[in-house]
Automatic annotation (TrEMBL):
Residues 1-23 form the signal peptide. Residues 285-299 form the Glucose-methanol-choline oxidoreductase N-terminal domain. Pfam families: GMC_oxred_C, GMC_oxred_N. PANTHER family: OSJNBA0019K04.7 PROTEIN, PROTEIN, PUTATIVE, EXPRESSED-RELATED. It comes from Zizania palustris. The keyword Signal applies. InterPro entries: GMC_Oxidoreductase-Related (IPR051871), GMC_OxRdtase (IPR012132), GMC_OxRdtase_N (IPR000172), GMC_OxRtase_C (IPR007867). This is Glucose-methanol-choline oxidoreductase N-terminal domain-containing protein. Keywords: Signal. The keyword Signal applies. One of its GO terms (molecular function) is flavin adenine dinucleotide binding.
Length: 586
């Protein structure tokens, strides 16, 4: 027991409060059928014809695919294929994501996976993609990032503004977040940049996709801007491959359609209409886009042949350069109640680490017995999900998980008071790869991120941890820390909890380097696998084929800004405008 006044084990304190990080899916109080009625161009895949034709086929209704499809629909016939359902329902924000992570059915909005590095992760499976599951923080990429990407700065800015008009708000900053802001400034993360969407060194308040009533807005909202007669959205449509053919006088295979299955297993074919400017566009994300390229015969030859896939184009760079920004966090128990808050404040340091925070006490309020029990279902950190806990995966039987859940229910309310301070590094420099586990498109591929393989990444993490230490010790944050709790004890408590499946180094965990390695988690900002210059050109056309582009986070070499969703949304709008302009250019 390191923290005076705590009534339970520090390890369990960590798991309880950690639910705040992920218990943040806020849903409209409408059923899926009611939402389908409001969006008449959205249908279930089993209601689709067996054969259909469009100008554009967009695969993936996520953070990039929704703004892209909405934009293209202004002047063309567009089909948007989404493997998940609608991001609407009647659940509370905390309960929904817990249920989503525990749910392994095809309709679950979050598909769990564990990287080959031993870090637990999640992949969105819902219209709106990761914007339906994240902490809602909105911030643009830096000007340097935009220049390095070769993007048109004027169109980038207008595309960001289009996004911001649709679903970005200025947050109300509660006391815990205000204390974090002041503590970052006291710790030297200066200047104070106030409220801004811009990525600039110092401490700032960013935007949020939660409105003032607490309602989450998602990339699916962009579809309200679509031309209804120009767009069809099919839900629960699992694409198995892109169709290619050879054409006289064309040196490369030409994409001409896709094959997808509905939940009943019925196969549907969608073809591009005649015309050289009609295209298939992959927006299936960092895991989905390279996976579908490989399933369609575009990828490393030996790897595809090992899975019995006919090789169309030997493209060894598909699936390479996949990276995930490592996140490390520390839980700060509070002597006073702390209100629920997601990421609102960020410290952008000169050393290449970003500091953010989340807090909350709602998980410990025993309003009624039912609410109390439901509140103590702890999201991705819950034993109910079978993901993170003290038991190895093979020992996580239903009985063992139930015992762990019941133990949590006996914890003192004070265990729920506090918040997390997180650090994420720039880049990262370390990268890995994606490989197929199977030729089944419903299965997640095998992913290796190689966290902290490069010394530069580890050095940035250490600087971030040192910044967090100064924040904890600051006068500005003193109201939310126990007076007799040392920084060392706070970090030791956090280091002792198994937040991943990596081996523990108990004796070394308090060295900053070992803390970074031992407590590494994801912040769900993974990217790469279809890099510009390696798999796609500057216009996001896939090398070696025609009629196919990739437009999503898989094309990024580095993650943009402190949180990437703003730039992924912007890219969908940006490329939609450019593709429209190309269409009408003679």
């Amino acid at each position: 027991m390191a923290v005076a006044g705590s009534a339970c084990s520090p390890a369990l304190v960590l798991v309880l409060a950690a639910a705040v990080v992920l218990g943040c899916l806020c849903l409209a109080a409408l059923s899926e059928d009611e939402q389908l009625e409001n969006l008449r161009f959205v249908r279930h895949a089993q209601d689709a014809p067996l054969v259909s034709h469009y100008n554009y086929i967009v695969i993936g209704g996520g953070t990039a695919g929704c703004p892209l499809a909405a934009t293209l629909s202004e002047h063309s016939r567009v089909l948007l294929l989404e493997r998940g359902g609608l991001p609407y329902g009647n659940m509370s924000s905390q309960q929904h994501f817990t249920d989503a992570l525990a749910d392994t059915s095809p309709s679950s909005p979050a598909q769990r996976f564990i990287s080959e590095d031993g870090v637990v992760n999640a992949r969105a499976r819902v219209l709106g993609g990761g914007s339906c599951l994240n902490a809602g923080f909105y911030t643009r990429a830096s000007n340097e990032y935009v220049r390095a990407a070769g993007w048109d700065a004027r169109l980038v800015n207008s595309s960001y503004r289009w996004v911001e008009r649709s679903l970005v708000f200025r947050p109300d900053v509660p006391p815990w977040q205000a204390a974090l802001r002041d503590a970052l400034l006291e710790a030297g993360v200066t200047p104070d940049n106030g409220f801004t969407f811009d990525h600039v060194t110092g401490t700032k308040i960013g935007g949020t996709i939660f409105d003032n009533s607490g309602q989450r807005h998602t990339a699916a909202d962009f579809l309200r801007h679509a031309r209804p007669r120009g767009l069809t959205v099919l839900l629960y449509a699992t694409v198995s491959r892109i169709l290619f053919r050879r054409q006289d006088g064309v040196p490369y295979p030409v994409a001409y359609g896709v094959l997808f299955a509905d939940p009943l297993g019925v196969q549907h074919r969608v073809y591009l209409r005649d015309g050289a400017k009609n295209e298939v566009i992959l927006s299936s994300g960092t895991l989905g886009s390279p996976q579908l390229l490989m399933l369609s015969g575009v990828g490393p030859q030996a790897h595809l042949e090992a899975h019995g896939i006919e090789v169309l184009v030997d493209q060894p760079m598909v699936g390479q350069g996949v990276a995930d920004n490592p996140m490390n966090s520390v839980f700060i128990p509070s002597p006073v109640p702390v209100g629920l808050s997601l990421v609102q404040v960020v410290g952008i340091t000169r050393s290449g680490s970003f500091i953010e925070g989340v807090s909350g006490s709602e998980f410990g309020v025993p309003v009624t017995d039912d609410v109390y029990r439901r509140a103590r279902n702890f999201g991705m950190f819950s034993p109910q999900t079978g993901q993170l806990g003290t038991l190895p995966p093979k020992q996580r039987t239903p009985e063992a998980l139930q015992r762990a859940a019941e133990a949590m229910l006996r914890l003192d309310r004070r265990a729920f008071r506090g918040g997390f301070i997180l650090e994420k590094i720039l880049g990262p420099v370390s990268a890995g790869h994606i490989e197929l586990r199977t030729a089944d498109p419903r299965a997640n591929p095998a992913v290796t991120f190689n966290y902290f393989q490069e010394a530069e990444d580890l050095e940035r993490c250490v600087h971030g941890i040192e910044t967090i230490e100064r924040v904890i010790q600051s006068r500005a944050f003193s109201n939310f820390t126990y007076a007799n709790a040392s920084v060392e004890s706070i970090f030791t408590d956090s280091a002792n909890f198994p937040v991943n499946l990596l081996p523990r180094h108990v004796n070394d965990s308090r060295s900053p380097e070992q803390y970074c390695r031992d407590t590494v988690m994801t912040i769900w900002h993974y990217h790469g696998g279809c890099h510009v210059g390696a798999v796609v050109d500057d216009d996001y056309r896939v090398f070696g084929v025609q009629g196919l582009r990739v437009i999503d986070s898989s094309t990024f070499k580095y993650s943009p800004g402190t949180n990437p969703q703003a730039t992924v949304m912007m890219l969908g709008r940006y490329m939609g405008v450019r593709i429209q302009a190309e269409r009408w250019r003679k």
